[in-house]
Design a protein that fits this description.
- It is a single chain.
- The chain is an alpha/beta fold.
- Helices cover 30% and strands 24% of the residues.
- The chain has a single domain, classed as Rossmann fold.
- The chain has helices at 10-31, 45-55, 77-84, 96-109, 123-126, 147-157, 171-174, 222-231; strands spanning 4-6, 67-71, 88-93, 113-117, 131-137, 158-169, 195-199, 214-217, 235-242, 254-256, 259-261, 273-279.
- The strands form three sheets. It has a seven-stranded mixed β-sheet, sandwiched between helices. A three-stranded antiparallel β-sheet has the order 1-7-8. The chain has a two-stranded antiparallel sheet with strand order 10-11.
- α1 (10-31) runs parallel beside α4 and α6 (147-157) packs across α8 (222-231).
- It is globular and about 45 Å long.
């Protein structure tokens, strides 16, 4: 059953997820519209949305010249977009083929970037240097079992005074039945340590299918996400919730500028994303 809770150790789950994400790379390379980056002014929709929020919390309200580490960067479209927005970028991901595509795209786009292959939970030991900004967005932390370990990497990567930014799918949204004809909960909002097992040959972009369809995710309530960051020593400076998503969570969602949303009559009933900005003092 899709979304069923199972006992599985982290290494086995991580291995299955890596196979799935490796399979996604050629599908996403074809579906992400990479030709758009031939225009030297093009930046991704995700960064178009996140940049004005992040900039408000940076010195001089600008990213220009700041060192930015992008965790779980996949094929690099957002990382390259941050570079075009003024940052000196390092992209981190666990997928060899994803980083190969990212590096090729950066070369094609004539953007300087550093790429590091490592698990996000081991990022500090693999990534050189300290950063003014650590960034992750979107659809990232559901793949991680241990958010305390994740938050510790973020703090260790940041310089004093550095800023962490995350926008991701809202835990309340992820508890909903994506196939129901009304807003109905189906999956746990609170985690119990077990993973949710999924079997799905499709991905969120493109029409192709993957060979390794089984993946594992973990539900993380807002209290756990915020708690991990606060326990690690970060100071919360901004929190927000949004009504749109960059992907179609449910077939009932309708297309809106730069994403998808519930039908208008339901749009104020449930959040789709959350955004957190936190600082290392």
């Amino acid at each position: 059953m899709n979304g069923s809770n199972v006992e599985i150790d982290w290494e086995a789950a991580r291995g299955a997820n890596l196979q799935n994400w490796d399979d996604r790379v050629p599908l996403h390379e074809a579906a992400y519209g990479l030709d758009a980056f031939d225009d030297t002014t093009h930046i991704s929709d995700v960064v178009t949305d996140d940049l004005p929020v992040l900039s408000r919390f940076l010195p001089g309200d600008t990213l220009t010249g700041l060192d930015l580490c992008h965790l779980q960067c996949h094929i690099g479209t957002d990382t390259i977009s941050w570079a075009r927005s003024g940052a000196v970028v390092t992209g981190v991901d666990f997928s060899t083929p994803a980083l190969r595509v990212a590096a090729a795209l950066a070369d094609r786009a004539q953007v300087a970037a550093t790429w590091v292959e490592t698990d996000v939970l081991d990022a500090r030991s693999a990534v050189s240097g300290d950063f003014d900004v650590v960034y992750t967005s979107i659809g990232t932390i559901c793949w991680l079992e241990d958010l305390d370990r994740w938050a510790a990497q973020i703090v260790a990567l940041l310089r004093p005074g550095g800023t962490f930014f995350i926008r991701d799918g809202h835990p309340a949204l992820l508890a909903l039945d994506e196939d129901a004809q009304e807003l109905t909960t189906r999956y746990p909002y609170f985690g119990d340590g077990r993973a949710q097992q999924w079997d799905d040959e499709s991905t969120y972009a493109g029409d192709g299918t993957v060979a390794h369809s089984r993946t594992y995710e973990w539900p993380h309530p807002l209290s756990e996400i915020l708690g991990a960051l606060l326990r690690a020593g970060l100071r919360l400076v901004h929190f927000d919730e949004g009504r749109t998503l960059p992907w179609r969570f449910s077939p009932r969602m309708v297309e809106v500028p730069r994403g998808y949303a519930w039908p208008e009559a339901e749009r104020n009933l449930i959040p789709c994303t959350f955004t957190i900005v936190a600082r290392k003092d």
